[in-house]
Amino acid sequence: MLKTPLATLAAVAALLAPGVARAEQGLIAQKAISLDMALAMAHGSLDKCRELKYKCAISVLDATGRPIIEMQDDGANLHRMGVARKKAYTALVYRRPSKQVVEGWSKKTAEPIPLLEGTEPNPPIEGTIDMGGGLPIQVGGDTIGAIAVSGAPGWDMDEACAKAGLDKVRDKLK
């Protein structure tokens, strides 16, 4: 038991101090991808895909996993859009390129090569996919979104097209 009123007051103040500090904090300032920035990234990726004659889909997600912009080139296969979104979501959730995530899953399952399409890590995170081509969008140490491409002939080319989109706005990601 506390023996003096001053000791009691000090104990109460110590307990309330963290709550007071949080209440005073108020709003949190966060960096976010604008629609114009997402459009610039998507068009940068699309331009690279078209230069290489690939019919691709591009997805740019915000930090919460919601699509900011998604586009699919003329003639791209029907499933490309959904795959691009899942690649971007995988890069966002794991905060690293989706190809690195797949390689990590491969090590986890003790396979010498990345998991084959259609296989999943254990336990899977809903909305992720075991395919390369997605990149996180990072500012400093924060992941503020992700971009992905689907439709190039191979994960490396999907990733190169996604990187072309990031390169369009690299100077603004500070």
Brief description of this entry?
It contains 5 helices and 4 strands. With 174 residues, it is α+β, with helices and mostly antiparallel strands.
Keywords, separated by commas or semicolons:
45% helix, 5 helices, alpha+beta, 4 strands, four-stranded antiparallel β-sheet, 174 residues, Beta-Lactamase, single chain
Protein described:
This protein has five helices and four strands. By secondary structure, it is α+β, with helices and mostly antiparallel strands. The chain has a single domain, classed as Beta-Lactamase (2-Layer Sandwich), CATH 3.30.450.150. The longest helix is centred in the N-terminal third of the chain and has 21 residues, at 5-25. The radius of gyration is 22 Å and the shape is globular. The model has no long low-confidence stretch (mean pLDDT 85).
